[in-house]
Amino acid sequence: MRIALASTCIADAMFPQAPRAVVTLLERLGHEVVFPAGQACCGQMHVNTGYLAEAVPVVRNHVRTFAPVADGEWDAVVVPSGSCTGSIRHQQAMVLERAGLPDEARAATAVAEHTYELSELLVDVLGVTDVGAWFPHRVTYHPTCHSLRMLGVGDKPERLLRAVDGLELVPLAEAEGCCGFGGTFALKNADTSAAMLADKVATVVDTGAEVLTAGDWSCLMHIGGGLSRGGTGVRPMHLAEILASTRESPVVPGRPGADREVAR
Amino acid sequence: MSTFLGMPAARDGRGPSPQAAPGTLSGIGRPEDPLHWGASFPDAARAALDNGQLRRNLGKATSTIRAKRASVVGEVPDWEALRDAGSALKTDVMARLPELLETLERNVTARGGVVHWARDAAEANRIVAGLVRAKEADEVVKVKSMATQEIGLNEALAEEGIAAVETDLAELIVQLADDMPSHILVPAIHRNRTEIRDIFLERMADAPPDLTDVPRELAMAARAHLRRKFLSAKVAISGANFAVADTGTLAVVESEGNGRMCLTLPETLITVMGIEKLIPTFDDLEVFLQLLPRSSTGERMNPYTSMWTGVTPGDGPSEFHLVLLDNGRTKVLADEAGRSALHCIRCSACLNVCPVYERVGGHAYGSVYPGPIGAILTPQLTGEKSDLPYASTLCGACYEVCPVKIDIPSILVELRAREVALAGSSPDTADRVWKAAMKAASYAMADGGRFRRAARVPRLLRAISRNGVIRRLPFPGSLWTRSRDLMEPPKQTFRDWWAEREDGR
To answer: Where's the 4Fe-4S ferredoxin-type domain (chain B) (predicted)?
Structure first.
């Protein structure tokens, strides 16, 4: 398949290892990946903070950039983020509709219909759960709120992880509880956010896992920031990074900022 | 409704509790406006987060009831269909509310009741006070009711020299302590049993002097106290869980039976009901009487369901008044995006699953309606600028459990947009800084070329990172780094890496 990658703005700027891993993984599975250069952001931050007018140009840019998928230029759009996929699917058309742009709202709906979060793309569209990965580490998985409740990805990420050779998946207590990130909530209600984070960090540490994984670098940035501050030694890694790891090109858990090499 | 969730552990049964210095039993006092009081949400939340006892009480109570709810909801095979039915019924009610209200009025009147219409809190309080005065009563007993909390009825009656006695155990505790409820269903969730014992000893004249904090003893002391009130009261005041338009029937569901006492013993019953509590037909109760107890107390059925239709000679109150309360509801109804907040049946399932509520408790919301539903209902009822729409991570747990499927996260986003519009011309520095930041981000994020350059900016932070993380940033970055490290930004953005790779091909 010919798959367009929406890297997400946060991963593009802060956590490039995740979209790079998506490229590695999909190419290894025999697919062609393209990166439409016009893309920037899905608009979720603006929408969720209430700045709908400011969201309009951001959303329009996203829709314009990925519109070719509706005409068959690409077979699908993949997003390594549950919340960005959720915003594309459930918010973009609403924003454009309210802005008095019904044609673009329809285009947004058409793009959204071809847009998939990574685990959805792999399991539902490509029909694979064993992607041939090797990652000999003890891992726990945090189901991010929007993957879980907005998209309903269910156990797809866990099925992918269980199929990884060498990986020991350990259950996370109170897994479905929010980590307290919530985008600008982390700044507007910093104390409440920190209290939620402390509880999430405690449950992660209790698992004895070496790596915490999730399908969203935004949540991972938050929990990872808490894990690092607490000196826990637990490393945050995106699901894609684990699935990209093989015996031939292993990905080693390390600090995300330390520019660890991603298997090519 | 009220329920027993198990009393949080206390240190020791006897002697004053360690932190109970004289006077500290008093709650936060009764505010002027029950829909808007106290500090801002972030400030009130900070104070609450620092209260270890409160955190433990809330953590235990909410996790207990979450588990109970999950288990009894899990055993209903058609739960999702029930939710759909509840949602559809409420949507229908809102679509023809004027017509249904008039039907209700007709049927209540035909069965010997008297219907009063109240535009706002002041009018409702005036009507009720007038009715009580006409009976020459100086004390009334009350059934637990959110509507009367919302309008500050007890305080209004007190000004008229009428004492209103709360008979729901938890509401009684809240009232004795001069406090505010902190949960829709379990209003004294912020109190533990030692505190309750101390409140009874200090504020309930007929409490046994050797009262301990054993739950049964506390309940028996309250029972004896309330029995005397039930037997002497001439007038009772209640809210309503449901009103059936078709038959004029009112319904109250509860756990203790104290509501039943109020609804049957006094000569006069006055019910204050928000106009949204209506359901079209008696059969529709079938849906809600399944949804409500499982969602709220985590029970298959609540112990007491009381229904009455007008008056029945020789049986129960001989005089029945129904006060239909608007108090901002028609304004909410007029708003297409927010009106489904009126579907709420006050089960409080959203509070119990909310990760924010679980940590900060109800008082931080500064409204008698706390938690996720309060965050969408309160600002809509008052129409004022509010920080409540931001008191959520939009995690969606509330929507998932709501028995009438109110899409709370989406309404929160709508209300945030309204806040931004209200702040449009605000001179407030924070509002202006947010606006400027969002505008700048919008410009940078609306074009691939501009974002390519913008995405390289974080790289500058590498200068202050150590061992791959940044531990400290100046304000507003400090809001982040106070509690979390920030990962060191990469040397190369994703798209620069991609461009390099494409060039190399």
So the answer is: 341-406
Given A125, A158, A173, the domain boundary residue is: A125
pLDDT higher at B10 or A198: A198
Q: Are residues A161 and A234 in the same domain?
A: yes
Average pLDDT estimate for B419-440 = 88
Residue A264 forms part of a structural domain = no
Task: Tell me the nearest-neighbour CA distance from A215 into chain B, angstroms.
Answer: 15
If you average pLDDT over residues A132-139, what whole number do you get? 98
φ, ψ for residue A168, nearest 5 deg: -105, 110
Shared domain for A186 and A149, answered yes or no, is: yes
Q: How confident is the model at residue B53 (pLDDT cuts 50, 70, 90)?
A: confident
A251 shares its domain with A150: yes
The CA distances from residue B133 to A72, B73, B124, in Å, are 76, 45, 14
CA distances (Å), origin A62, targets A55, A72, B336? 11, 17, 28
Residue that is written with structure tokens 């390390």 in the block: A254
Neighbours of B305 (CB within 10 A): 18
- Is A55 in the same domain as A110? yes
- Domain of A231: which CATH number? 3.40.50
Number of CB atoms found within 10 A of residue A174's CB? 12
**A258 contacts B488? CB cut-off 8 A:** yes
> Does residue A132 fall inside a structural domain?
no
pLDDT digits (tens, 9 = 90+) for A43-63: 999 999 999 999 999 999 999
For A209, residues 6+ apart whose C-beta sits below 8 A from its C-beta are A138, A139, A140, A170, A234
Q: What is the mean pLDDT of chain A?
A: 95
Domains of chain B, earliest start first: 41-329 (3.40.50.10420), 455-503 (no CATH)
Of the candidates A46, A60, A197, the beta carbon closest to that of B484 is on A197
Confidence of residue B430 (pLDDT cuts 50, 70, 90): confident
Do residue A80 and residue A186 come from a single domain? Answer: no
Measure the CA angle with vertex B315, ends B312 and B317; round to 5°.
Answer: 80
Best mutation target among A191, A196, A255 (most B Cβ atoms within 10 Å) is A191
Please report where in the chains the tokens 């119990």 appear, as a residue: B352
The yes/no answer to whether this complex scores an ipTM above 0.85 is yes
From A84, A103, A125, the end of a domain falls on: A125
Tell whether B441 lies on the interface with A, counting CB pairs under 8 A: yes
CB within 8 Å of B440: residues ≥ 6 apart: none
Number of separate domains in chain A: 2
Inform me whether the C-beta atom of residue A26 falls under 8 Å from chain B C-beta atoms.
Answer: no
Contacts of B152 (CB under 8 A, 6+ apart): B30, B33, B34, B121, B125
What pLDDT, in 10s, does the model give residues B167-206?
A: 999 999 999 999 999 999 989 988 888 999 999 999 999 9
Asked if the C-beta of B117 comes within 8 angstroms of chain A's C-beta atoms, the answer is no
SS (H, E, C) B374-399: HHHHHHHHHCCCCCHHHCCCCCCHHH
Does A119 share its domain with A64? yes
